[in-house]
Specification:
The protein is α/β, with parallel strands linked by helices. It has eleven helices and eleven strands. About 5% of the residues have low confidence.
Length: about 325
């Protein structure tokens, strides 16, 4: 005997119950506190920025955000465990250019694929580099610096905080794009690098916004910023682009990532909450005061940007012979 066919009423009831059953199996996000791994030390720029943003984001999400610092390997070591985290949005990563663009470009091996082993959620901020010289250097802009570097015996030395950092690569990018006769002097101690340039032992320095007090006091002369636009901390200082060097853009940047295969609804909700946090006037001001520039990019735009950054630093690393 054939089984009876289901009635229209039974079919309709089943159709209604199906989404309810699926919803019951997938609890709403977030269902518990969110852990954000910061692969840098407490008190670092990445850490401070993440904690500022977390205040706004946890209110919007309705769950606490717990920041976990896992410093080491320029951000690579702390980023790796997030690759293996459950793809449910409760473990996230706030990483930076060092781990997600420079390391993939310059290291022989990496413990992960910086693009494909993560879900891009959104870029939060950038922090640019300032090209500064000792006042004894006869240059008030980049063109004069390039010409001066070609006239002096030997070369113009520039200091930075070590091989493979954003400061170092900014100088190599400037040399590559302009033909400037520059030689890098890496310092393990950034404070000593600043002191040596102020004292005139080294003529040039590439450093973050933290160098501005020396510029404002007249101990150093700023020539340019390596950003796409002038920076709110020094709006009078022109970019390298404005000075006729269109490709000299070398920023540190900070972005949210999740584990691979993070569901798009969760990714998009996190991006929207991040975007709104960056747009909050109070948070925006706090970030600017710490030397950061809010620079939001959504998931797809961040992925494209990251691929472009890796390609750029790969080119610069090969041309300059820089390997980590």
């Amino acid at each position: 005997m054939a089984a009876p066919r289901p009635t229209r009423r039974a079919l309709a009831a089943g159709a209604l119950l199906a989404p309810l059953s699926a919803a019951a199996q997938s609890p709403p996000f977030p269902s518990r506190p969110i852990r954000v791994v910061v692969p840098f030390a407490a008190g670092s720029a990445t850490d401070i920025m993440t904690r500022h943003l977390a205040i706004h984001m946890q209110e919007a999400l309705g769950q606490p955000i717990v920041v976990e610092n896992r410093a080491g390997g320029a951000g690579v070591t702390g980023s790796e465990p997030v690759v293996r985290a459950p793809a449910d949005g409760h473990t996230l990563l706030m990483s930076a250019v060092s781990a997600h663009a420079i390391a993939p470009a310059l290291r022989q091996t990496m413990p992960f694929d910086a693009v494909n082993d993560f879900t891009q959620i959104g870029r939060a901020c950038t922090s640019t580099n300032f090209i500064v010289v000792n006042p004894a250097v006869p240059a008030t802009n980049l063109a004069e610096l390039v010409e001066h570097s070609k006239r002096v015996p030997g070369s113009v030395s520039y200091a930075s905080g070590g091989v493979g950092g954003s400061n170092h690569l900014a100088g190599e990018l400037l040399r590559l794009r302009t033909g400037a006769n520059l030689v890098h002097i890496p310092y393990a101690n950034q404070a000593q690098a600043v002191n040596d340039v102020v004292a005139g032992h080294v003529p040039m320095l590439i450093y973050t916004v933290a160098i501005l007090p020396h510029v404002q006091a007249g101990r150093l002369r700023a020539l340019a910023v390596t950003a796409e636009e002038r920076q709110p901390q020094a709006p009078e200082l022109p970019t390298a682009i404005e000075q006729g060097v269109p490709d000299v853009v070398a920023n540190s940047w900070f972005a949210f990532f999740g584990p691979p295969r993070l569901p798009e609804p969760i990714r998009d909700r996190l991006w929207e909450v991040l975007r709104r946090a960056l747009a909050d006037p109070a948070i925006h001001q706090k970030l600017v005061e710490t030397g950061l520039t809010p620079a939001p990019l959504g998931p797809e735009a961040l992925r494209r940007f990251q691929i472009e950054e890796i390609a750029k630093w790969t080119e610069v690393g090969r041309a300059a012979g820089v390997r980590i």
